[in-house]
Design brief:
The complex is a heterotrimer.
Chain A (H helix, E strand, L loop, with lengths): L1 H33 L4 H4 L14 H9 L2 H32 L5 H11 L8 H10 L6 H25 L3 H9 L4 H30 L3 H4 L8 H6 L9 H21 L1 H7 L7
Chain B lengths: L3 H33 L2 E3 L4 E3 L5 H8 L1 H33 L5 H9 L6 H13 L5 H8 L7 H4 L1 H26 L3 H9 L4 H28 L4 H6 L9 H11 L3 H31 L1
Antiparallel strand pairs in B: 1-2
Helix pairs in contact in B: 1-13, 2-13, 3-8, 3-10, 3-12, 5-8, 8-10, 10-13, 12-13
Chain C lengths: L1 H10 L2 H12 L2 E7 L2 H9 L1 H7 L2 E7 L1 H13 L7 E4 L3 H7 L21 H6 L1 E2 L2 E2 L2 E13 H6 L10 H11 L7 E4 L9 H11 L16 H17 L9 H9 L3 E7 L2 H5 L11 E5 L12 E7 L7 H11 L2 H11 L16 H6 L3 H10 L23 H16 L5 H18 L3
Parallel strand pairs in C: 1-2, 1-3, 7-8
Antiparallel strand pairs in C: 3-10, 4-5, 6-8, 6-9, 6-10
Helix pairs in contact in C: 18-19
Classes of the chains: A mainly alpha, B mainly alpha, C alpha/beta.
Chain lengths: 276, 288, 438
């Protein structure tokens, strides 16, 4: 009897969760379906769901009109580059804050986070002038540096909260064994910190991939990532829903797939110290 | 516990991060500060280095300033409310036993990976559009008049788009928190015959408070700078002009760099007030 | 280098020069352009130029607002990221006046005939006798209407209708159950969206943006008449989401057969008559933009044009490209590949003397008449201190008009009355103009 009730409940929860899950996912699903329709089918009344003439013409039209491979490459380089650079700078800082906390540690951390509140447009002109001065407009390196700076506070904070949960006794033990600072980090901490680092990397790749202000303003061709690629499709003459959908899917598919495959790692470290 | 030696190496390790952020914050900020006291309008080829506080005065006294503050608070506030309420409920739901939990989680998490421009375009054209959007078909299907979301409920429409993007984030963090709740505690309460609602109020919610503050903090940081969603959908029309968007209009649409810079500085100051306020709460919450 | 090239260009035939040039100076230029159909076509035909000259092109194709934001930032900071920019009639005189653009009076290809450009279009891109941008396509606005629906309503469209006629016809054509809206017009906020339409419309109502002392005129009775008429007409016979409809949205509606009349850019004519995209291609008629008997019609004048920023380091190659893309031979090239109906219209007199074009484009005559009817030098019935038909050629205009447009769009959405919208428009325009030192 009890078992029957649990199964019944389980089915109820399943139906409810799937319903809500599908509802949340629906806009992406719909975009995906629309990207395979003809333009006429895309705006047909009533809407068509699955039974239409599936076509790849939108994808080939999009590929023909723009340099998708370059934009994709730029997105990958910028997202990975800024994240890795950020990690290199943030890991030591977060480690030191977590294990050798001083009186000001919390203040420094909060100050770092507050730099993230700087409204981008407010510093747009200065930044363009600086980039121009160094001759780095429309270069990947510029975006790598800027996105790294934008996300650095988040990286530091995420790592800090993760590191803090690593028990200090382990370090003590390692120190007793005569490990110096460097060895302590490499052999003791890193293995324990890896899930947190992995999760931080993933989150920041997503944030960098989706950043759509600086990446549009500071690039033209050479460093233009997918955010700029989608900007050229936003309102061509007439509303080409099918082509817009195809371009959208092409812009989000890489990160979506990466996100799905790595969601376990992403979720594992995504606590920001929220869980004790 | 920490030795002098480890203290100084700790400082050394923090230094690069502090240094780059300091440069990042100070250099553009000082330039912005400099421009904010200048009459700088490149389209008029005007650059007068010192005009006192004129820019600040006209930015603060213009009627658009106060309404933009209101819009910002309203927008950020309602997005926070929706994502946190929805996030808590979803987290509790996803914690239940069910079939295919992994797949449901994949479905729920997906919007977080979609870039803001894309989600704004998709929602605007394929859902909100009054002639060809799905909502209009839905309304017509039920015999109702198609409803023009973007002009009748502009703020609400943008809130929906942004909340859709951030709901997964809130859900994930809250879900981790829910899962860390010891089942003994809950079972004990259940044994005592505590009804579900009171279990929620007295055990689950207090347990989640920390996670909720974290979600509020992180989301606020990102929500204060919402741009693409407004740019794509209403372009600031129908009272959807936030402070960030107002500054954008001054700098890029009106090309009045002096005025825009003053607005930028004001935005920075206000953001920092919010930040200090938030940090206090979060800081307290993170300590214990 | 410069001299050598000119020498080559003038003494040798095109093919030979191009062959030599490809060895001597193969280079890369970056072109920023808007994602309109004609521009996308230029992009797809540009390999011909690349082959002929050996140069290559980096294309930056963007949506209009993003493009404007990008090129304006680039040019005002002297960024030098682009060698050719696509700009409009609004930007050209302002940027040219700031010496940010290269003069096109000299250095263009020999067969690029400057005197063939339509005077109204050329005038809009010229400051003190210097041409700063080469028009790629020019447009005015006109009425596009469904002949079948007009007939069904028992009315007949004159060549030069009045606003009263349009409103009456719109009402007669509207059939909300059949999803037919008598009139489609821009409602989406923006200086290049609803304000282009409304400013042009206000001209025919005798209104003006500023008086001779640069005082805002939204408190005038002419503006009140304009806005109330517009709102009443749109409420009676416009589509449901009118306040969000710009050019693209209305185009789709018209092509789907949901508009009885549409008053918008003349370039739309080739889209609505193209059977590939339009369900009503064979039922479209054209008329001049309406008037009110005051001597001005409510049509605008615009030209998407190619300009070369002074910060470009490859001005010669850029000029070569601009010559190519805005020449008569480019028109011929498009005609050969895509048919005469698809050539970029509205820039050259020779096109309107070409019988092939006139045969293929039923809208040609109306386009030319509309363009000729626009007078940027004297846009209003009253005296004004500015030039520009649907805009005021001052740098502050874009920012102000976008905000005014938001007020009007809000009124169209029914969130405020015409009086409230005009009062806010008056207040904010006065405020901004004072801040700008007028």
């Amino acid at each position: 009897m009890a078992r029957a009730i649990t199964t019944q409940k389980k089915i109820m929860w399943t139906v409810l969760s799937w319903g809500i899950g599908l509802l949340i996912f629906f806009p992406i699903m719909w975009t995906f379906l629309t990207s395979f329709k003809t333009e006429a089918a895309a705006i047909s009344d009533p809407p068509v769901w699955f039974f239409f003439d599936w076509t790849l013409e939108n994808y080939s039209a999009v590929l023909e009109r723009s340099n998708y491979p370059l934009a994709l490459m730029n997105s990958i380089v910028i997202a990975l580059g800024s994240t890795l650079l950020g990690i290199i700078i943030a890991v030591p800082a977060a480690w030191a804050m977590a294990f050798v906390p001083g009186k000001r540690t919390k203040d420094v951390l909060l100050w770092m986070l507050s730099t993230k509140m700087l409204p981008a447009v407010g510093v747009l002109y200065p930044l363009v002038l600086i980039a121009k001065y160094f001759g780095v407009m429309d270069s990947r390196i510029l975006l790598v540096v800027i996105l790294m700076l934008i996300n650095l506070p988040i990286i530091v904070w995420m790592l800090y909260t993760y590191f803090r949960e690593i028990p200090g006794e382990i370090l003590e033990a390692a120190r007793m064994d005569g490990a110096n600072l460097k060895n302590e980090i490499i052999y003791v901490l890193t293995p324990m910190a890896l899930p947190g680092i992995a999760s931080t990397i993933l989150l920041n790749i997503i944030l960098a991939w989706n950043e759509a202000f600086w990446t549009i303003i500071l690039t033209t061709v050479n460093a233009a990532p997918l955010t700029k690629f989608i900007a050229s499709f936003s309102a061509p003459e007439g509303l080409f829903y099918a082509k817009l959908s195809a371009a959208s899917i092409m812009a989000i598919a890489p990160i979506l797939i990466m996100g799905w495959f790595s969601q376990k790692q992403l979720v594992r470290g995504l606590t920001f110290g929220a869980v004790k | 516990m920490a030795t002098e030696h480890s203290r100084s190496s700790a400082r050394l390790m923090i230094a690069p991060a502090v240094f780059v952020l300091l440069v990042w914050m100070l250099v553009p900020l000082i330039m912005t500060l400099y421009f904010s006291f200048a009459d700088y309008r490149p389209l008029r080829a005007t650059f007068e280095t010192w005009i006192g506080f004129d820019n600040y005065a006209s930015f603060l006294t213009s009627s658009s300033f106060l309404s933009s503050i209101g819009t910002t608070l309203w927008m950020v506030g309602s997005i926070l409310l929706i994502t946190i309420l929805g996030g808590v409920l979803l987290a509790l739901l996803l914690d239940r036993p069910m079939f295919g939990q992994g797949i449901v989680r994949i479905l729920v998490i997906a919007p977080f990976f979609v870039m803001p421009t894309v989600s704004a375009l998709v929602w605007k054209n394929m859902f909100f559009n009054v002639d060809n959007g799905l909502f209009s078909y839905l309304f017509k299907f039920f015999g109702a008049q198609p409803f023009d979301f973007l002009s009748q409920l502009p703020l609400f429409s943008i809130v929906i788009i942004v909340a859709w993007q951030w709901l997964p984030f809130a859900t994930l963090i809250l879900l981790t928190a829910v899962q860390s709740l010891s089942s003994e505690q809950l079972e004990a309460a259940e044994m005592d015959g505590a009804p579900a609602l009171s279990r929620f109020w007295h055990i689950i919610l207090p347990h989640l408070s920390r996670a909720i503050t974290v979600v509020i903090l992180i989301q606020t940081i990102f929500l204060l700078s919402i741009f693409a969603e407004i740019f794509v959908t209403t372009n600031g029309a129908f009272g959807t002009r936030t402070l960030t968007y107002l500054v954008y209009q001054r700098v890029l649409e009106s090309q009045n760099i002096g005025l825009g810079s003053a607005g930028g500085i004001i935005a920075v100051i206000l953001a920092n007030i919010v930040a200090i306020f938030l940090m206090r709460i979060v800081g307290k919450n993170l300590d214990n | 280098m410069n001299m050598k090239r000119n020498l080559l260009g003038s003494t040798l035939g095109f093919g030979l020069a191009a062959g030599l040039a490809s060895i001597a100076m193969a280079d890369e230029i970056t072109i920023a352009t808007v994602n309109n159909g004609d521009m996308v076509r230029m992009q797809s035909l540009s390999p011909k130029w690349e082959e002929a000259t050996g140069n290559t092109i980096n294309w930056v194709v963007l949506e209009e607002n993003v493009l404007r934001q990008n090129v304006t930032t680039d040019i005002s900071t002297g960024g030098g990221q682009y060698d050719v920019m696509t700009i409009g009639t609004y930007e050209a005189p302002i940027w040219g006046g700031n010496d940010w653009l290269v003069s096109l009076n000299e250095g263009m290809a020999d067969d690029w005939n400057i005197d063939d450009l339509l005077p109204a279009i050329r005038g809009g891109l010229t400051v003190d006798g210097t041409l700063y941008a080469a028009p790629f396509y020019g447009e005015s606005s006109m009425v596009m209407y469904r002949k079948d629906l007009m007939e069904k309503a028992g009315m007949e469209m004159p060549d030069a209708p009045t606003w009263d006629f349009i409103r009456k016809a719109a009402k007669a054509m509207t059939d909300r159950d059949a999803e037919i809206n008598g009139i489609c017009a821009r409602g989406k906020a923006g200086w290049g969206e609803n304000m282009a339409f409304l400013t042009a419309m206000s001209n025919s109502f005798g209104a003006r943006w500023f008086d001779m002392d640069w005082k805002a005129q939204f408190d005038s009775s002419e503006w009140k008449d304009t806005l109330t008429f517009y709102l009443d007409m749109m409420n009676e016979s416009g589509p449901a989401g009118a306040a969000n409809n710009g050019f693209n949205e209305n185009l789709t509606l018209f092509q789907q057969g949901k508009c009885g009349m549409w008053i918008d850019a003349t370039v739309a004519a080739s889209f609505v008559t193209n059977p590939k995209d339009s369900t009503v291609a064979d039922k479209v008629g054209f008329a001049l933009a309406p008037d009110n008997g005051l001597g001005k019609r409510g049509n605008w004048l615009w030209a998407w044009s190619l300009a070369i920023p002074a910060s470009s380091e490859k001005q010669d190659i850029a000029k070569d490209f601009v010559s190519w893309a805005t020449s008569q031979s480019y028109t011929a090239l498009v005609a050969e590949n895509e048919g005469w109906a698809n050539v970029p219209p509205g820039t050259r007199s020779s096109l309107y003397a070409n019988q092939d074009y006139l045969d293929a484009a039923p809208f040609a005559k109306m386009t030319l008449e509309s363009i000729n009817a626009a007078d940027p030098q004297k846009p209003s019935v009253q005296d004004v201190p500015y030039t520009g038909v649907q805009f005021v050629a001052i740098p502050e205009f874009a920012g102000i008009a976008t905000q005014v447009g938001q007020q009007f769009s809000d009124a169209l959405a029914g969130n405020q009355t015409a009086e409230e919208a005009l009062a806010s428009a008056q207040a904010l325009t006065t405020e901004e103009m004072e801040a700008a030192g007028y």
